[in-house]
């Protein structure tokens, strides 16, 4: 007999999302009512073509000299890592604990920062991004190259974007599985972005666990990174699943995270230059990128406030249920034992006894915690 949690994943696909790994593709922007009815209310992603053809950015941003002259006196936030994986899990080199590693962030002149992105190598990867409305602040001189909002989205959602962020990276940068408390309208201007998506109902397939926070430090003198655990220790709840493990680790990862690897495949979306992804609030997403002929991928995303409504309440309830209870109701008396087993830090976190606010922390990704 199908386990109750598997029935939930399947039912959501049968009733709403479909059984393929594709999402709806609209050939033009939706009307506000269509966007609200078919996508926002349904908490369902879609890909949209022909919505940004009129943006000056779609032509101007293919010219690196244009960027360099427009932003010649701007300072921007450059994220540096030795792997291209910031806000991601990695073994700590001395303690070998798995930790949540954040990039070294340098605020430097744009021309230097762009050079660091273009000259990235597999030991030092630069990614220009900052999820604090950076497009309208750090990149102000570019703001006329894109519309300030998507009118169909603003009308459907009843508000203007809360934050607009610019992302300039290359194929070495990867964003690990996480979710955000925003309705995300994500536009690719140059290159391509490859998203893996899972709905909030699949939360247990992500194995969210608390990991100790650590920060990369880059030494200009040696050109090497160190990774330092934060003191006092801080724990960040993060998705444990790496969907693309190396061949050596694959078998081990598949055995550790069977609900992910043996369950329904994630939705796969490539967003090409000129296209938009509507990424609904609370959806888990993992992002990789392919660059344009210069070696850059450029995107702008618009974060609109989400509604903290009944869907959010149901999600909190679902997330508070440990696996044992969902897969085998008879064992629900044994919640503490299971959640201790699943804690990856030898510092048990009792999921079943978490308060509403602790659960809420689990839902917030580090971006929310760190930037907002
Ligand atoms: O483009 C990326 O690397 C990540 C985008 C993302 O995570 C977001 O927009 O929430």
Structure description:
The chain is of the alpha+beta class. The chain has helices at residues 4-17, 32-40, 57-60, 64-70, 110-118, 151-157, 247-256, 258-261, 310-320, 323-327, 335-342, 356-363, 366-371; strands at residues 24-26, 46-48, 75-81, 85-86, 88-91, 98-102, 104-109, 125-128, 163-169, 174-178, 182-190, 192-198, 208-218, 225-229, 235-239, 267-272, 276-279, 284-290, 297-305. The chain has one domain (4-320): Jelly Rolls (Sandwich). The protein is 27% helix and 29% strand. The strands form 4 sheets. It has a 6-stranded mixed sheet. A hairpin with a 6-residue loop joins strand 5 (88-91) and strand 6 (98-102). Helix 2 (32-40) crosses helix 6. The protein is globular, with a radius of gyration of 21 Å. The termini are far apart. 40% of the residues are buried. Residues 167, 175, 180, 184, 186, 193, 285, 287, 299, 301 line the site of 2-oxoglutaric acid. 2-oxoglutaric acid (AKG) binds at residues 167, 175, 180, 184, 186, 193, 285, 287, 299, 301.
Compact overview of the structure:
27% of the residues lie in helices and 29% in strands.
Task: Note the topology.
Blueprint: H1 4-17, E1 24-26, H2 32-40, E2 46-48, H3 57-60, H4 64-70, E3 75-81, E4 85-86, E5 88-91, E6 98-102, E7 104-109, H5 110-118, E8 125-128, H6 151-157, E9 163-169, E10 174-178, E11 182-190, E12 192-198, E13 208-218, E14 225-229, E15 235-239, H7 247-256, H8 258-261, E16 267-272, E17 276-279, E18 284-290, E19 297-305, H9 310-320, H10 323-327, H11 335-342, H12 356-363, H13 366-371
Parallel strand pairs: 1-2, 4-10, 6-13
Antiparallel strand pairs: 2-17, 3-7, 3-8, 5-6, 9-19, 10-18, 11-17, 11-19, 12-16, 12-18, 13-14, 13-15
2-oxoglutaric acid is lined by residues 167, 175, 180, 184, 186, 193, 285, 287, 299, 301.
